[in-house]
User: What shape does this take?
Amino acid sequence: MKYLVTGGAGFIGANFVFYMLQEHPDDEIVCYDALTYAGNLETLESVMDHPKFRFVKGDVADREAVFRLFAEEGFDVVVNFAAESHVDRSIEDPGVFLKTNILGTQVLMDASREYGVARFHQVGTDEVYGDLPLDRPDLFFTEDMPVTASSPYSASKASADLLAMAYHRTYGLPVTISRCSNNYGPYQFPEKLIPLMIANALADKDLPVYGTGENVRDWLYVEDHCRAIDGILQNGRVGEIYNIGGHNEKSNLEVVKIILQQLGKPESLITFVGDRKGHDLRYAIDPAKIHGEIGWLPETKFENGIKATIQWYLDHEDWWKNIISGEYQQYYEKMYGNR
Ligand code: NAD
Ligand code: DAU
Assistant: This one.
């Protein structure tokens, strides 16, 4: 089998490349990535010379380049991770989110129709269900819930999902969609909650918690996500949506306190800052469908995953210090300077 993995120089895509090369040593992977601010070839350093791996730099919205790649390679399976992925950036500048996340997905699906693939897997997010109230712990996201969106990011991801389902129904494209909760683990860009808080705590800088810190996320260790997608590729039903996550709900304040405790840093570093516009209250996945059909459940408990993640950031300071030393400084000042 030959896989096209788009966005494979980013956080989850790279972890998926590592996972697949290990679990399916006979399969080939081509990673196609535009190397935006979030893409990093250093992340892929260990596999660049792997005989079953090839990296191609390019934009998923570049129709000519994408069609050329499909013509050259003849893919069996496409897994589309490529996206603008940060909610806060989408609030500042939605345009690129629509281009990459919606039009990019369309281009990839058009190429998949033209050249034929056995599967087109769209990596989606649980943010397309909107949010759940904080005082109803009995409620969870299920696949049959209506799609809604709070941020330009989630609206763009919801649009891509709708388009993918339309391509399945109208053209018979063999689509599957997964909708995952918040991932954490190695190689996550330090604009997201957990790596940002680890990096700030290590530098004894303020930890900027939005609003009251009561918002809840359902944390999933990235390797569990990769295993779930592999399960869907092998055993999922075409035309179906699968939620991925569950049973690891934590408030932002709880997460930040755990990080401080693990690093032996004081809680006085916590600083409450202005809330995110349209801030979703709670995400929580019901994984009954993927569990029932594919036998998947998350394996990594938050307590263990966060320890492993913190240790990874301690052991790989060069990787993230390189990132936060450049353009990131201006980003940080813009987002947090007057918050
Ligand atoms: P990321 O921001 O770390 O990586 C995105 C990657 O896509 C980068 O390598 C970037 O260079 C590449 N990319 C961006 N625009 C591109 C373009 N136009 N053409 C080609 N490549 C492009 O994101 P992530 O956190 O790894 O998320 C991967 C996917 O998973 C996204 O689709 C995201 O919506 C989804 N997702 C993420 C989470 C999470 O918690 N991180 C949860 C659920 C779903
Ligand atoms: O649920 C899946 C989604 O999870 C993915 O689709 C997105 O790509 C991914 O970025 C993530 O979205 P969130 O907005 O939930 O993640 P983020 O890490 O940006 O924020 C997590 C929570 O922490 C959220 O409630 C906002 C809060 N937060 C975040 C940052 C960066 C803070 O309080 N302070 C911060 O500095």
In short: The two ends are 49 Å apart (CA to CA). The mean pLDDT is 98.
